[in-house]
Amino acid sequence: MARHRWFEESKSIGPQFFSPKVHNRRAANVVSANMGNHATEDQASRGNDRPGRSLRRTIRLLAPAAGALLAASLLVPAAFGAAPVAAATAAPAAATTTVGLVSCTSASHPAIAARLASDIWAARRVRSDSVALVVEDPILGVSCTLSGAARFDSASVVKVTILGALLRKAMDQHRYLTATEASLARTMITQSNNNSASALWAELGRAYIQHFLNLAGMSQTIVGPGGYWGLTQITARDETRLLRLLLVPNTVLSNNSRAYARNLMTQVISSQRWGVPAGAPAGVVVHVKNGWLPRATHGWRIHSIGAFTSSRGWYTIVVLTQNNSTMTYGVNTIQNIARVIHRDLNPGATSFTAAPALAPSAITPDERIPALPAIP
């Protein structure tokens, strides 16, 4: 299926901002002239309104309308009461397939949706951890969900939200990122550096991060208490909204801001590129951010969010998990699910990427969380 690339990555160190203003004086002059012509004609007609001439003028004015009515009448069915011909064929109704707890929907490709639901559930049902996911492919018109509104401690996937808020604040202030902000953003995303995340979290403040969530429509996300960004409560549904914000033109982030964020997510170090990239077809550009965090309750939180762009367009996969006995167990759950998703969304692909092996250093907890009072 031939599809076209619709965006290019930006490698600048910060977003650019524009305030275009369009002035079309020629159009304004044409409108003014036309209004003047109508006024002159109207005045002349009133000054020469004699019997007979008024009737002839009325006939001249009505003639075009009568012609339009006649032409329109040719489109009306001959039989009285017959339904008019539809201007366009109605879009097919969306079909939803639910297998186990997985529901996939598509109007244009119901067979792919049905296969996805079956394959995702087959990969999920043999695992003992808790899983939530959302898949979105607007080109195929396919979406899938499993517990999309369930909340999880964010661990490091919240760093993409921090980046989005940082870019938005720079836009609000009509400026580029500072050299320090750009450096912190880079290490926060590409290396999952916790100190960088903490510095930007403190700079932005929880109130501004909440402001960004409001703008982004991420209404299910709850900002972490105090400086504990890793305890932000996230859902697969809201993380999908965030990824879409980075992919589709919108009023929250400029085109350059979106490209800047996507570009950082392509440069995540190899030891942290596990998760949803597993099984991606060769040739797609992978934008990923993962999170991993153990706590006394619910074991390891292992999350992976990713966007996959190519000449065919884009699609996103978000998988959140908890109650994992080890980090490796959670990673395997995500990768088993991701492989069947990539395969089903790319039936013509013949080559798929392998997931990197987890290095011992990569199993270090994402953020050490001390004992806290009641956490939402």
Provide keyphrases for this structure.
376 residues; alpha+beta; Beta-lactamase; 2 domains; 7-stranded antiparallel beta sheet; two-stranded antiparallel ribbon; 10 helices; 9 strands; 16% strand; disordered N terminus; disordered C terminus
**Compute the gyration radius: what is it?**
28 Å
CATH class placement of the largest domain: Alpha Beta
* CATH topological fold name of the largest domain: Beta-lactamase
Record the strand order, biggest sheet: 1-2-4-3-9-8-7
Mean pLDDT over all positions: 81
CATH architecture tag of the largest domain: 3-Layer(aba) Sandwich
In percent, how helical is the residue content? 40-55%
The helix/strand order is: HHEEHEEEHHHHEHHEEEH
Please tell me what the overall shape is: globular
Distance between the termini: 46 Å
The count of strands amounts to 9
Structural commentary:
There is one protein chain. With 376 residues, the protein is an alpha+beta fold. It folds into 2 domains: 30-71; 96-363, Beta-lactamase (3-Layer(aba) Sandwich). It is 40% helix and 16% strand. It has helices spanning 25-47, 53-73, 110-124, 158-172, 179-190, 194-204, 206-216, 236-247, 255-266, 327-345; strands spanning 95-99, 102-106, 130-137, 142-146, 152-153, 233-234, 285-294, 300-310, 313-324. The strands form 2 sheets. The protein has a 7-stranded antiparallel sheet with strand order 1-2-4-3-9-8-7, sandwiched between helices. A hairpin with a 2-residue loop joins strand 1 and strand 2. Helix 4 runs antiparallel to helix 5, helix 4 (158-172) packs across helix 7 (206-216) and helix 5 packs across helix 6. The longest helix has 23 residues, at 25-47. The model is unreliable at 1-59, 61-87 and 371-376 (pLDDT under 50).
